Amino acid sequence: MKGLAPLWAFALLVPTVAFATTAPAQPGPTTAAELRQSLTALLTEHHIPGASYAVFDRQGIVLSGVIGLADSDTRAPVTDGTLFRLGSVTKTVTAIAILQLIEQGHFGLQTPVSELLPDAPIRNPFGDSDPVRLIHLLTHTAGFDDMHAKAFFSPVERRGRHLESSLQHPEPLTVRWRPGMYESYSNPGYVLLGAILEAHYQQPWDEVVSARVLGPLGITQVAALASQAAQRDHASGHSGADMHRTPVFFEQTQADGALWCTAEDLARLGRFVLTDGASAPGVLRPETVRAMKQTRSTVGARAGLAYGAGLGLHHRIVRGSLWQGHAGGVLGAKASMHFHAEQGMGYVLLVNSENGLRKLEEVLADFISHQTRWKPPTPSLQPLTGDVDGWYRLVNPRISLLNLPTYLLSVGRAKAQADTLIIEPILPGFGYQATLKHHGNGLLADVDYGEVINGVVVRDGDGAAVGLETGGDFLQRTSMAAAVLPLASVLLSLALLLSAPFGRRTSLRNRWVRRLPGLALLAGVLGGVCAAKLELTVLAHANWQTVGVWAASVLFPALGVAGLVLSVRTWRQEPATVARWRCLLGSASVVCLSTWLATFGLFSFALWRW
What we know:
- By secondary structure, the protein is of the alpha+beta class.
- The chain folds into 3 domains: 8-372, 3-Layer(aba) Sandwich (Beta-lactamase); 386-482; 487-609, no CATH class.
- It has 17 helices and 20 strands.
- The chain has helices at 32-45, 90-103, 113-116, 134-139, 162-168, 187-201, 205-217, 226-230, 263-274, 286-292, 299-302, 357-372, 403-409, 480-499, 512-532, 544-569, 577-599, and strands spanning 50-57, 61-71, 76-77, 84-85, 222-223, 237-239, 244-246, 260-261, 314-318, 321-330, 333-340, 345-351, 390-394, 411-417, 420-425, 434-438, 443-446, 453-459, 465-470, 473-478.
- The strands form 4 sheets. It has an 8-stranded antiparallel β-barrel. A 7-stranded antiparallel sheet has the order 3-2-1-12-11-10-9. The protein has a 3-stranded antiparallel sheet with strand order 4-8-5.
- Strand 6 and strand 7 (244-246) form a beta hairpin.
- Helix 15 packs antiparallel against helix 16 (544-569).
- It is globular.
- It starts with 31 loop residues before the first helix and ends in an 11-residue tail after the last helix.
């Protein structure tokens, strides 16, 4: 995504599927020894205590290795049996268990979720014509929000109870657009999949996947609960340049990201998908595994785009080539399991840090490319018609908390130049920016990611361009006025508000005319300071940071309204024309800004209830 970055540590919960890197500037490692040497150097450079990795092909594991420390405090080394947290790679396992039930005929991809979980607290304004279906959960296209703060952690370890968790925290299950329109990564969707498995088998999720997926795949070095991993050889989480340890918090659900595993065992899962199930016959039919790899259920997919979410899998661009699999991130750890179909090889990378996963992946991709001697095909670029020119706005942010900054800032102006579509931000350094190459039939490749097609021009029934899907983002066409005026109103309001508190003391008879917008500005600044201090682990609790944000969201508009009312009432009593106008406009600016906050649900905003 080229728009706004996620808030705080929300990025840790993403499999970072849309980000990519360009082709290598120099050859990478060519031998197992060089690979280990390169990875070891990168661990030091990026302050990562330890890692476990494996390279596999259709026949089995090509090589594997472990580097560094499982725990920086105890100095315990990483071993072949050290369990690492997988995060969202767990979703692939959950998806396989669901697809087994589909193969058995219990339901289908198009089955409405309400038929399988009648008590699921889904709020869908499009439900009469477009219910949330099973395929939407698997492909992150239901339109759900991502996990809200209060649903992250549990004071005690909970096993199973996925439907109970959804009932306790229904907020993310509000459908924001018609299901099957856009992709928006949503952990709560996979929580519902876990609930479907538990409802069908009448067993906790971990028992279901252990017996029906992990065991048949030959994955034995695995744990589904933090308490289980703690009793075995496991990697502690770390964060920051000082590599300080991060505690393992109990999560409320497992189906969306709870598994721990070793690199060698996780490679069995990667090989299973790479070989269309041939490495573990009987787990899924070959045609079902092939279906897992197909992108579907978005307007971009219907327009011919192959990049995006499959059934429990997602594409990832590494070193300018297209890989498929899943990545995951939790506090203190990251994981990646990906394969390249044309090269017939893949890799697993597990680290006990939040730092530098991508750089290590690049080295593994370089090593595999050297082994296979595979070269990507030369693209055939074609001119792009000028009917795509115009203004576009990102409309599918992953986190609803980002709706306001996304609406204001994730806007860009597109202009076709021969075979290139350039999207320029609304302001230099602010807004949506990308340079896309046209490969014909409306298919686009972001030049920052090499020559891999990851976008498409979306047209309506009359052939008019109505949007662009690129890297999972959907940019909807809009007018110049709709693109520019919202941000202009905010910037003008900020400028007027900043000037309001300043002036001669004696210029106003009632000094509260100036004090009120000044106090509103102070409340806004203090609220911003509190927001800047927020961390993922404190979002769901009432503390000085979250209470400070809430207080600012209440005081800011209240002081603005009070200032505006006072300015109007005392207008004729104030002889200083410039001063009274500045204060009036300052208070009006607070009201304008508060209106934007209220429109996007940020008035009286209590994070501990979000």
